[in-house]
Amino acid sequence: MAALVTEHMKFMYLVFKSQNVVIFNCLVVLGTLGSQQLYSFLAFQCPCAPKRNYLYGLAAIGIPALTLFLVGMLMSNQTWNFVAECRRRGAGNCTIPAIFLLLGCVVGPAMVAPITWSVISLLQGEAYVCALSEFVQSSSLKDFPHQYKPDILAKFPCKTIPVEDVSFKEDVVRKLRYESQFIGWLLLGTVAITVFILKCLKHCCSSLGYQQEEYWSQYRSNESELFKRTAEIHAKMLAAGNIKQFFGFVALDNDEKQLLQEFSTDNVQSTVHWDHITGMHIFRENKGFPIYSRLHKWAMRKSLTDIDPESKETIVLPV
């Protein structure tokens, strides 16, 4: 029984590892959805005043979406890799399609949360109804009084509407909610079609086979995981060695003492080497051999003297 559970756990780990991007995006969507629902329930209050409604409604849709986009950009490692790439090497070694694809690698993941917020806000319709209630045209509704002015129309999304105008409130709210949900579904469909087309173009423009793309994806994942784990241990051991030199001893637990005995930190890389492995990478080939990352390129240049460091991209696939 224990062996069966262990095998199932290994299988689930492999599934989650192979679909880590999809799962992360799903978690982002669910988190954004929960935040939007909580905001609508606890904080959203239409001011019910001309001009204020419009600003408040648009801000309720746009400002959180912009904030989520900026947070996504700040939290993405790709953003800082792209900045490092532009600062150190510029765009002289990239084709124009490659530059757009690199930008897509940075911007694409950061767009998941703001698009989710905007779509859910539009499907709920509260912010849209609040923003555009004062602009409802009398000709757009049957038997709608012509004498209604913006100061009265602005109160339709709220409970403070005069009793004599309550009979028209449902028609106005229904009309605006219909428009909001239509725009929301249209935005969702546009995003889905755009993502589908971009994925198709990516695979059509790729000179890699499906199996090699899968291998490249696995390599990137493993390299990132191993590099992070190794860098953490190396930094800890280097710090321990320096502290021991300063104090004469260092307080380590048993596992850390074993690591200190097992690994050496004599091989400290120079800043030049760190610069070589930092930045964005587009799949390259040199004399028929694939180069899967900047670290891979650095290792090949270190071991083989005939690798051309200025080789051009052979395809335009983002990392």
Automatic annotation (TrEMBL):
It comes from the Eukaryota. The keyword Transmembrane helix applies. It is found in: Membrane. Keywords: Ion channel, Ion transport, Membrane, Transmembrane, Transmembrane helix, Transport. GO terms for biological process: ATP export. The keyword Transmembrane applies. InterPro entries: CALHM. The chain crosses the membrane at residues 21-42, 54-75, 96-117, 182-201. This is Calcium homeostasis modulator protein 2-like. The lineage of its organism: Eukaryota, Metazoa, Chordata, Craniata, Vertebrata. The gene is LOC117358831.
